[in-house]
Each structure stands twice: as C-alpha cells, then as structure tokens.
C-alpha cells in the first residue's frame, strides 16, 4: 500500500466524532455481534430495537502501509448501552503478531480497556478523557463503554500487527465480563462460559 495523503494531518473532529483525512472506516453492526453477549434474550431485544444494521461501533483509521516499522493510528467510537447486565463492548482481539503493543487515548466518554493474557490473567484500565491505556504485547484486549455517551479513543499500533479474533470466540469469551453494578457503576464478574486455553 502506498502512503496516502501524507502531506495532510489527520484531525479528530469532536463535532462529528470522526477522523478527517482517514484512509478507511469499518463499522460493526448489532447483527454482527451475535454470540458476543451471554444474555441471548437481551441481545435479541437489542437486535429487534436497533435492527441488524444498527451501528454498535465504528473505527476510523489512517493506514499509511502494512509494512513492518510503520504505524497505524485511528479513532474508535463505541456507542453506549447495555445488553442484559453487560455493557456494550467491542469484539476484542489479540494481535496476530502477538508481541505487538498498542496504546489508547480517551478523548471523550467513560470506558474500560479490558485486557487478558493468553493464560487468562485479567487487567483492566478505566478510562476518562485524557487517560491513556497501554496494551502490552501478548494481550487480548477489548473496549467496554460503561458511560452514557459515546466512548471515543484514539489508538496507535504497529502496521504489521494484524488481528486474531478467534482466540476470544474459541474460549467462549474473555475470562471476565463488565456488568452493571448499582453501587459502583460497573464491576467485573467471572464469565461462567469461559474455556481455559491450552
């Protein structure tokens, strides 16, 4: 891939919540998140209300190339809500080259960066505007919106990282899930469906 618009900066537009001069955008719809949430009845209700094409989150990115040594940066916008007791979240992934790290800088909203080692050790960073989460190498990670507005983060990671989504699906989710807690707003609970990885 050749460098695109390298003479122009990418700009975060807080009014439209988009990345100007991006090279791409992908959107995850409610219909594409089947199987992500434990409460299947609550998911079905969300699907009926929002429609299968209803937007759950989107990612704007600037991808200059896929070459080793290059960097991708972008903007993740995760809409608020709950599905049963669980907060709306991204699918999550491990980098295909798992030794690649990533950083997320919260621009607006209130969310979590939920991280897990392949062996199942959980680490979570709570994010509010101005906070930065470091995702170490070999970390499965997903964003969770625990607020009542869009959870917006800027991210950057090595361009040759790739994504492995299957590692979460194969273990029937991450070891912990973020749920509504009346006293504290959110809490982590063990995922009873979790399958320990080899």
Domain module tally: 1
Compute the gyration radius: what is it? Answer: 17 Å
Secondary structure tally: strands = 15
CATH topology tier name? Jelly Rolls
Distance between the termini: 36 Å
The second-level CATH architecture is Sandwich
Which superfamily, in CATH terms, is the homologous superfamily?
Jelly Rolls
Label the structural class. mainly beta
Q: Would you kindly provide a written description of the structure presented here, covering whatever features stand out?
A:
The chain is mainly beta and 198 residues long. The chain has one domain: Jelly Rolls. The chain contains two helices and 15 strands. It has helices at 40-50, 166-170, and strands at residues 11-13, 18-20, 24-29, 55-62, 71-78, 82-83, 86-87, 102-108, 111-117, 122-127, 132-135, 139-145, 151-158, 176-181, 185-190. The strands form five sheets. A six-stranded antiparallel sheet has the order 3-4-5-13-8-11, with no helix packed on it. It has a three-stranded antiparallel sheet with strand order 10-9-12, with no helix packed on it. It has a two-stranded antiparallel ribbon with strand order 1-2. The chain starts with 10 loop residues before the first strand and ends in an 8-residue tail after the last strand. The model has no long low-confidence stretch (mean pLDDT 95).
């Amino acid at each position: 891939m050749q460098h695109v618009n390298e003479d122009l900066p990418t700009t975060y537009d807080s009014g439209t919540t988009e990345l100007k001069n991006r090279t791409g955008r992908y959107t995850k719809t409610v219909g594409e998140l089947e199987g992500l949430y434990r409460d299947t009845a609550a998911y079905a209700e969300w699907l009926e209300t929002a429609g299968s094409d209803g937007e759950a989150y989107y990612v704007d990115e600037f991808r200059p190339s896929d070459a080793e040594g290059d960097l991708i940066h972008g903007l993740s916008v995760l809409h608020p809500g709950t599905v049963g007791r669980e907060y709306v979240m991204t699918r999550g992934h491990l980098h295909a080259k798992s030794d690649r790290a990533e950083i997320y800088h919260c621009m607006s909203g209130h969310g979590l960066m939920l991280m897990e080692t392949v062996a199942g050790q959980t680490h979570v960073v709570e994010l509010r505007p101005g906070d930065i989460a470091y995702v170490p190498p070999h970390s499965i990670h997903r964003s969770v919106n625990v607020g009542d507005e869009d959870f917006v983060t800027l991210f950057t990671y090595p361009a040759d990282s790739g994504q492995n989504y299957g590692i979460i699906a194969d273990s029937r989710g991450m070891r912990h899930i973020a749920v509504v807690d009346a006293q504290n707003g959110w809490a982590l609970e063990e995922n009873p469906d979790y399958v320990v990885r080899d």
